């Protein structure tokens, strides 16, 4: 894939990952069963971009606001007044701001992809083998793969094709070759590291845990520097010829790190990981359907799934039922957080929200979009399907913006069938639609998918692919005045808060190159 890849073409885009792993780790990490309501319960072949003809979604603004609280997760009427003002403003059909679908072109276009440049000889990989079983969601696993590539080079070792843990929540048995083009991954990185498909037979028979070669996230501090691996991991590798990293979530620092290793990280993420043809072809079909009914579209990732909400320790208007459900989820999946909550005086949900530490709710997201000036007829693609609270939680969004679709609306049941029960492969389709959109809106800066998508849009966008990155602390302050603020003032303040996040800047020190690739290691600044 060349550095001038066309983002409207999914062949230019990489992927994410699924799960499978060691039994002992699985018992420690495996998630319990949680029932999530789906954004779309039916997959439809309907190619109409509008959902306004769906009786379960299409409601008047007045009726819609009443229905928001009737589902699994009722909402307090916090934003009724503001949603009514937003509806009134959208009904005026005003012109959109000139810069709404743009980013600062001149400074943004000055940065060009150059992660494909190499200035070293291939690694022989003769110190042993690195095996990685990555945990977390598909996006965390993607980061783990690229970090493992860097560690393999740092330790002059051979990397075994990574494996992914199985989760009882997602029930996705997909492995690397189900998501990524394995041969391309191996061949593209051959000038950098040696990659093999499996351990040598003499090492396959070893009990890696018994010989001390299994290394979990408990053993590796978060964002460890290269010196840690040279001091603590290399001796194990030289002694046993193999090290198995189990988990490996965010276990490599972004700074300080040698220039060429950082560039290798970028090369892996933006060039070496490519979707398999099945995902590419369906992704191309999805984009074709999106473009058929709209000259341009906005993609939005609502990071409003139960795992994020439970981990945030925030409250979202669902009262005692919501608190009990999120606490039960925490006890299963985040026991350390549950213990901390019981033994330590933590910040209150209200304080967390005021500090911008809570994901935007669907109501807050739609108010932000309306205030920015997106017209009612705007075509929107919603990524994800496991919105907490189900369809009713999206009533405000679908009422104000009826031209809203998901992959389930655009692809038929037959077209989606090969991907059903494979959540990572379905998420890859969302990744393609978001990355190729004319504008992309985050709702939570901590979302790994949003971070990776925004990074791809920077790397390949040529200054023409804007991303809306809300400053949640500023927005929280604005939303707190929802009972008194006038719509015009609300618009002005929201636009100012978002406009400031559109500034073009070089990657801040210690920040992710996957999210902020504008740095000398990943991209070249032209005159």
Features:
disordered N terminus; 23 helices; globular; five-stranded parallel sheet; 527 residues; alpha/beta; six-stranded parallel sheet
What does this structure look like?
- This protein has 527 residues and is of the alpha/beta class.
- It has 23 helices and 13 strands.
- Strands 2, 3, 4, 5, 6 and 7 form a six-stranded parallel beta sheet that branches.
- Helix 13 packs across helix 14 (335-343) and helix 16 (362-372) crosses helix 23.
- The protein is globular and about 70 Å long.
- The relative contact order is 0.20.
- The model is unreliable at 1-76 (pLDDT under 50).
- Ends apart, CA distance between termini: 25 Å
Outline the biggest β-sheet: 6 strands, parallel
Overall average residue pLDDT: 86
- What kind of assembly state do the chains in view correspond to? single chain
Helix content: 40-55%
Which descriptor suits the 3D outline? Answer: globular
What is the number of helices?
A: 23
Q: What amount of the residues lies in strands?
A: 5-15%
- By secondary-structure content and strand pairing, the structural class works out as alpha/beta
Report the strand count.
13
> pLDDT below 50 for ≥5 consecutive residues: which ranges?
1-76
Return Rg in Å. Answer: 23 Å
